[in-house]
Write a structure and sequence with these properties.
With 289 residues, the protein is mostly helical. The chain has one domain (32-281). It contains eleven helices and no strands. The longest helix is centred in the C-terminal third of the chain and has 55 residues, at 195-249. The two termini are 37 Å apart.
Length: 289
């Protein structure tokens, strides 16, 4: 919603200022210019990007329109589900977590928290983090290396769509110039016509340059920055899971492991110590799963 409001502000300020200065908005409507610029940018992204990057870019744009799901409420649920799982593992042994880890979508604990269970990437990362410990395949002190490798790869995958969108934004002024040049070519073919017709065609050509610059710096470049922030938020969420799991795997008490994750959160997302204590107090008797 915020991104839509921002786009409306940009649109209203630019086109409102144009109309206020005596311009006619109809003079800026040229579908052929949009086809040249938009089609050129889309084609360039297809040429430069593997299929997975394009899919990730489309998903990222949807996330940008809906807003990042990593709110304070989402972190509260994350800390609660981690605490319940850790309490279960501490009381009944790590083998008691097997049913929650092997098929997390049917876990009675995970299903209690819709903001967490509705995030399949986070659910899979948590399950994948706990599974090697339950199976006994690695030692607890080796878990950090395992999770760091996965997080580094996630960071690379998040950066790829942002890079593609930034490169497309950088190319937009160039496609605007292409549209303008083609408009001048059309104008020169009608140079013997009425002066009003020539003026309209020159104006249409200039609109191509305007649209290329406007779309680049007014929409695409800000969108790329927004995707970068969303990717950073998702990585922070993943790192919080990793920190808590690593702490628990190394023998920390559930409360201490959760505190380790809490201290790594941004100030606007981090509950205070008192809030954390109150939040977990009601869960201490539910660790049986």
């Amino acid at each position: 919603m915020i991104i839509v409001i921002g786009a409306l502000v940009v649109f209203l300020c630019v086109f409102g200022g144009f109309a206020w200065g005596g311009g006619h908005l109809g003079a800026l409507i040229h579908p052929n210019e949009l086809l040249i610029i938009g089609g050129g940018a889309l084609g360039a992204m297809v040429i430069m990007s593997p299929r997975k990057v394009l899919v990730d870019l489309a998903k990222g744009l949807l996330h940008a329109l809906k807003g990042a799901p990593y709110s304070r409420a989402a972190y509260d649920e994350l800390l609660k589900v981690l605490f319940e799982l850790f309490m279960l593992g501490r009381r009944n042994g790590m083998i008691a977590l097997e049913e929650h880890v092997m098929d997390p979508l049917t876990s009675t604990i995970i299903k209690k928290y819709p903001l967490f269970s509705g995030n399949p990437e986070a659910v899979e990362f948590l399950a994948g983090s706990l599974r090697p410990i339950i199976d006994g395949k690695i030692k607890p002190d080796q878990l950090r290396l395992l999770l760091d490798a996965e997080i580094n790869k996630l960071e690379e995958e998040h950066h790829a769509p942002v890079s593609v969108l930034n490169k497309a934004a950088d190319a937009m002024p160039g496609f605007g110039i292409v549209a303008a040049v083609l408009g001048i070519v059309i104008t020169m073919a009608s140079i013997s016509g009425p002066i009003e017709q020539i003026g309209e065609k020159v104006a249409a050509a200039l609109v191509g340059t305007f649209l290329g610059i406007f779309l680049a710096y007014g929409f695409m470049s800000p969108l790329a920055t927004n995707l970068e922030f969303i990717g950073a938020a998702q990585l922070d969420y993943t790192r919080c899971i990793a920190a808590c799991v690593i702490g628990f795997a190394n023998g920390m008490a559930p409360v201490t492991a959760i505190e380790l994750g809490r201290r790594g959160l941004n100030s606007d997302l981090r509950p205070s110590s008192e809030e954390m204590e109150q939040m977990l107090k009601s869960l201490k008797n539910t660790g049986k799963g």
